[in-house]
Design a protein that fits this description.
about 550 residues
Amino acid sequence: MSEPGLPVTETAAPAAPGTPTPGVARSAGLVGVATMASRLLGLARDWVFLTAFGAGHLMDAYNVAFRLPNLVRDLFAEGAMSAAFVPTFTRELHTKGRDAAWELGRIVITGLIIVTGIVAIAGILLAGPLTRWLAPEYAAVPGKLELTTTLTQVMFPFLVLIAVAVACMGMLNSLRSFFLPALAPAAFNVACIASAFVIVPFMAGFGWHPMVGLALGTLLGGFAQVAMQWPALVKEGFRFWPQIGFTDPRFREIVRLMIPGTLGLAAVQINQLVNVYLATSEGEGAVTYLGFAFRLMYLPIGLFGVSIATAAIPGITRHAAAEDMAGVRNDVSQALRMTLMLNIPASFGLIVLAGPIVELLVQYRSVNASNTAGIAAALMGYAPGLVGYSAVKIASPTFYALKDSRTPVTIGMACIALNVVLNLLLVRTGLSYAGLALGTGIAALVNATVLFTMLRRRLGGLDDRRVLTALIKVLIASTAMAAVAWGVELELAQHWAGSEPWRRAVRVGLAIGLGLGTLALAARLLRLHEFQVAFGRVWSRVAGRLRRRR
């Protein structure tokens, strides 16, 4: 599969503007495979938790407890840390060599351990006030607020582990190693899933609540992410020992980019925090509904948005460092068009098939039809923002590569305010927690639209005609796809009803399959170049494997 807009390998021949390169496709393809594995395991993790503990007050307590350390995790893993560290480390690597880059890596890891360690200790000591502030309604349920506080204390050290894991990810990405860092979150999810079966059953014997087992699994998952990446860095020549360098100009540059960058890239995470706060007053299960729906919505983001952006950032950074604005413009334009091609159909599909998909995935054991309807309503609210979330992951790091952190900060903060206003309005319209999801989705779209408008001005255009043409064609093809998928599922539900898992799977599978077939046909009739490139790459790989087997 070819993803235009991603970096060209050093050995690749120059490509004509608008032409995707094999190196680019390979990097993004590897990231996509690893990220899909991680996202699927993340979905499996949430499924295990839901079916084991239900969508009631126990899972609400766990999700709220994980929200505070996870907020910082999200900022580091896919936000300011990556946006600030990767360009600086890449520049150091290419201008001064590996020894200087390794020194910077040691300084950054040491600094992260110290800072996040202090934050973790403060979080443990202040867990009580923090949880009472975030979820005051939980005090009305006996033991719920106390359990939330305990779980928060157990999970706060996760910050230190994930900070180190993200530094490893940044260094490996700069070395053009994308697959292993993208796969590392899979280790986290495996550890969490294992904890439900291996640790939870023994908690009662120690006099602890079973949910503490899930919290301990979270810590093991953070350690697993570091353990998966560390040997690859050692193989590249990296050796770690504590090296404090808070006055080092390179470290100060990273901090200078990170502090405002945290605010600029925090829109999604802070919006989620606001949603949790408001959702705690929307009845039992609301926090869990929003959390699982966001996980489902984030699956295509992880596959398409993050994989494209992760592979694109180093290339965009190199063009920006060389003041090659044409190269930056070409890479960003291609990445944006591929993002639209992949995420708009996914958004349409999630809206029309939210109910059947959620029913297929989670309506078992402790999860009833009411829980399913709640998750589906939240998913439909989030889905319109899917394109926005993915596009921001391209736009914001591009501004940082251009040494401009003020623009994404300003726009991000404005969108946070917009999201709060929308949520306060929509939650009172009868939409309840689904209104919170919709407000977040709308704010994400606005954030991406404004960022790319400003980026277009900065770069003197983004191949506007091609982007607009691709957008119109994708919207037409996606509408046809959604209509067919919705019609097929509705027809099957009426004439081939049944709650058996295999019946649900067949209905959803046929709806998705015929919908994708319609998308492919519409894309071909509309001569949608981006779809043809992606399909051609996939087909060439399949055909190549078949020939080799013969």
